[in-house]
Task: inverse folding
């Protein structure tokens, strides 16, 4: 069974950066495109971008191009999302999720809550 | 970017009712739409992919249909465990875009 385990909640100061992790178990991370999705409190889902761990190629939604950086480490089967220049608008739960073949977002991590506050 | 207009924002149904949620895309998405259920504090769960294909474990009371720009998702015989928010996702083109969600409540 494929499982995605995300890192724990973060309380971070405005203007700083944070790096979130998403570890895949039950399969090799290279079998999937790894995507990240943002959900602000009480709001809907927003696609941030995806990485192909095979070649580290990335695609981002336009609004996240200067905000988010996706990386992957195939040796540890882990994908990462780095968020920079944090503001209160970045306070949200961030989910990682998989895409393989015709199965968009079949598996999900439990989410990481990032709270930006001074 | 493809906009997904989802309606209604909320639904109130009695147990055993049939409910329907719609998503209209701003352009043809070639049936590349999926539907997700999200319960409070949990990650979304995929229910349907490619308009009408139920993923493993999805109860048969859930269904999807549509083509072109217009798609619908239905729950027949609503059960108490169906209390959740539901989202559509278009995956025909990047950037991937979600509908704004529908919150299902029980009367």
Result:
């Amino acid at each position: 069974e494929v499982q995605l385990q995300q890192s724990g909640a973060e309380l971070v100061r405005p203007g700083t950066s944070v790096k979130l992790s998403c570890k895949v178990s039950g399969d090799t991370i290279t079998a999937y495109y790894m995507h990240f999705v943002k959900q602000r409190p009480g709001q809907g889902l927003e696609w941030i971008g995806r990485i192909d761990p095979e070649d580290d190629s990335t695609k981002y939604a336009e609004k996240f191009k200067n905000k988010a950086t996706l990386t992957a480490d195939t040796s540890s089967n882990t994908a990462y999302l780095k968020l920079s220049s944090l503001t209160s608008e970045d306070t949200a739960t961030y989910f990682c999720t998989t895409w393989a073949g015709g199965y968009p977002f079949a598996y999900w991590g439990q989410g990481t809550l990032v709270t930006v506050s001074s | 970017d493809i906009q997904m207009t989802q309606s209604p924002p909320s639904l109130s149904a009695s147990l055993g009712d049939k409910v329907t949620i719609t998503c209209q895309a701003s352009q043809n998405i070639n049936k590349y739409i999926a539907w997700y259920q999200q319960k409070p504090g949990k990650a979304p769960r995929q229910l349907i992919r490619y308009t009408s294909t139920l993923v493993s474990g999805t109860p048969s009371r859930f269904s999807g249909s549509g083509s072109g720009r217009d798609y619908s998702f239905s729950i027949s015989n609503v059960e108490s465990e169906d209390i959740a928010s539901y989202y559509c996702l278009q995956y025909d083109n990047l950037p991937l875009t979600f509908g704004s969600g529908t919150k299902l409540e029980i009367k």
Observations:
- The interface with chain A takes residues 1, 34, 36, 38, 42-46, 49-50, 55, 87, 89, 91, 94-101 of chain B (CB under 8 Å).
